[in-house]
Specification:
2 copies of one chain form a homodimer. Chain A is an alpha+beta fold. Chain A has 3 domains: about 80 residues, Winged helix-like DNA-binding domain superfamily/Winged helix DNA-binding domain (Arc Repressor Mutant, subunit A, Orthogonal Bundle); about 150 residues, Beta-Lactamase, CATH 3.30.450.40; about 90 residues, Enolase-like, N-terminal domain (Enolase-like, domain 1), CATH 3.30.390. Chain A has 12 helices and 10 strands. A 5-stranded antiparallel sheet of chain A has the order 7-3-10-9-8, sandwiched between helices. In chain A, strands 4-5-6 form a 3-stranded antiparallel sheet, covered by helices on one side. In chain A, α5 runs antiparallel to α6. Chain A is elongated. Chain A starts with a helix and ends with a helix. The model of chain A has no long low-confidence stretch (mean pLDDT about 90). Chains A and B meet through β4, β5, β6 and α10 of A and β4, β5, β6 and α10 of B. Chain A binds a DNA duplex (30 and 30 nucleotides) through α3.
DNA sequence: CGCTGGCACTCCCCTGGCGTGAGTGCTAAT
DNA sequence: ATTAGCACTCACGCCAGGGGAGTGCCAGCG
């Protein structure tokens, strides 16, 4: 009973602070959130909550604001809210006429940033194994070649290899023909075996190994972890409440995709459904004033790509989580073609 | 003589303001920039410059700052400065070990943002006509097909077409074979003729036209105008002197790539060498507090891709222009392989 | 025992007044 | 044409004071 009300108080403080971005006081809570108790009672609860480190006051005579820990408690005790119907519909209508993968991702990231009014980030679907359909090898400059692998599931992977010699046109063409013959229709494992044999032939070109790696790598799903962003301007919105230098370091962290990607991976690993990192939980100085809501997406059971929203700790968690979840679900359905 | 000194005064005001971000007064100019005249004289010149709208004072008892028009005059009367040797060397060393086009562009944009300490933007090289090397057509879902065109100059273009029917596998394969036979080794113009004939054959599949367009379009150079950014965090640097909401609208304008691209194109069109737009000259509300320094790059004579730096009007124009020019030159040399 | 009303206290924030200093425009002298 | 001098303006920093929001605590009440 008592625990119950304290939780309600915390809940109300979070919601109030998120809505107004001002510390919320006991009177405001009592009148507005009809908890049925007087300000004095709430003050007692507040003292207890502060004791536990869930809320804090910026200065002695101000209301309370949630701490990172407070947000954490709030988020953990949140019943999953559904995305409002109109927004739900927006997702399908807006995304359904995407023409291809990159268009889908592009639209999704834009949509997600609009729904959440935060920075949205989506990692391109990490690619599954697929059979090799065709390998093109194109000469580039003196000692380089472009390897293009088209896979049976309609992906195109390209990579560049350094030849280390200047092969004759004939040799070049022979290699291209042989590689195609050796791999056509094979999955990565089989292709790897065949190419290993092929590369080991006597008087083989010295770059056969590199070429084999490139082809097998492409069949395995490529290595690039491309990430796209949208909505960075939301960081600078006045009601985001971020200092100017905080904005700068967040932008920097975002451009440094590696950091963010690792973080997203971590989050997706130890969470089902939607994962949330709040403020200091990101373990990055630059992101200590921001929270991240992330989810994996991909074919059911094999969610291996990531998407998320990033914004100030003072964000609308239920709403953001609902939006992230909804977009992740939609993408999961759509991406498996 | 008089004109001469006034110009020097303007020059000094611009440099002073850019360096300190504070309005610069007559005394500071007299002592620091050894113009050999007294503050009073400088005040007279300042009054004249203000009369002409080249400088302004933020309030009655403050020093002067350049107006957009003042910066414009400054830039127009600038001898092209060379990039300092160390930075010059940085370009070659840093960019020379890029492995392929996208790596080169990626490195370039990052480097440019570091050299200028501004937001750097590079448009992917706009692609030249090339011969068709190979066309792959891959089925995707029921009524879609992925068309991949590998061109002789080592590009890979992909696009998706809507079939509007469900062709049999046989028909599909026949089409793929025929298209390859019809276009192999041909440039866009020839390929277009051959494909037109081919598409007009009796009992041709209904999507032959679309397919032909896709192939010819790819040979023509593709349609995508991809743009990459780096250094957005520079907008939020304290010494950039941009208001928070200005940062927001600039970020928005950047994400809205269309606007920026059109602007860059305009700039490149009516300028040789490096082009500069200052503040209001961008004709965009969101960019009214920022300047853009841009240059075209590409094979000599056919500079058709763009790169540039974007920052607050109070920027180091000579330095930025030198960096943009240098990177553009480097890319022009490198990209034509 | 938990809740409530009352009350004193703290401290932010706004306002207004004041002195200071930087920088100017003007005028008269060189 | 340039310069020295001088009066003037005005942002800025500082300080004090009042108002107000919000708190913590205490005593009383159901």
């Amino acid at each position: 009973m008592l625990e119950e009300r304290r939780r309600a108080v915390l809940h109300a403080i979070v919601e109030g602070y998120v809505a107004t971005s001002e510390p919320v006081g006991s009177r405001a809570l009592a009148t507005h959130h009809h908890l049925g108790v007087s300000p004095a009672t709430i003050r007692n609860d507040m003292a207890a909550l502060e004791e536990e480190g869930l809320i804090a006051q910026p200065h002695t005579s101000a209301g309370r604001i949630p701490t990172d820990k407070g947000y954490r408690y709030f988020v953990d005790h949140l019943a999953a809210t559904a995305l409002p119907e109109p927004q739900r519909r927006a997702i399908t209508t807006f995304l359904s006429d995407a023409v291809d993968l990159s268009d889908t991702v592009e639209r999704s990231v834009r949509l997600l940033s609009q729904l959440t009014r935060q920075v949205a980030v989506i990692q391109y679907p990490s690619l599954r194994e697929a059979k090799v359909r065709r390998v093109e090898i194109v000469r580039m400059g003196q000692e380089r070649a472009l390897v293009v692998v088209v896979s049976a599931d309609a992906r195109v992977e390209q990579s560049t290899i350094l030849l280390g010699e200047e092969p004759t046109d004939d040799a070049f063409e022979r290699v291209a023909r042989e590689v195609n013959e050796a791999t056509q229709g094979l999955g990565p494992a089989a292709a790897e075996r065949r190419l290993a044999e092929w590369a080991a032939r006597p008087q083989q070109v010295p770059w056969a190994g590199l070429l084999a790696d490139a082809v097998v790598g492409a069949a395995r799903g490529g290595t690039v972890e491309r990430v796209v962003f949208s909505g960075t301007q939301n960081l600078a919105r006045a009601d985001a409440g971020l200092e100017q230098d905080a904005i700068g370091s967040v932008l920097e962290a975002i451009e440094e995709q590696v950091v963010l990607l690792r973080l997203l991976h971590e989050m997706a690993r130890d969470a089902t459904d939607v994962a949330v990192r709040i403020g200091g939980e990101t373990h990055h100085e630059a992101l200590s004033k921001t929270s991240i809501v992330a989810a994996g997406y991909g074919p059911p059971g094999g969610e291996s790509s990531l998407l998320g929203a990033l914004g100030p700790t003072r964000m609308d968690y239920p709403g953001t989580m609902a939006a992230v979840r909804a977009v992740a679900r939609y993408l999961s359905r759509v991406v498996e073609m």
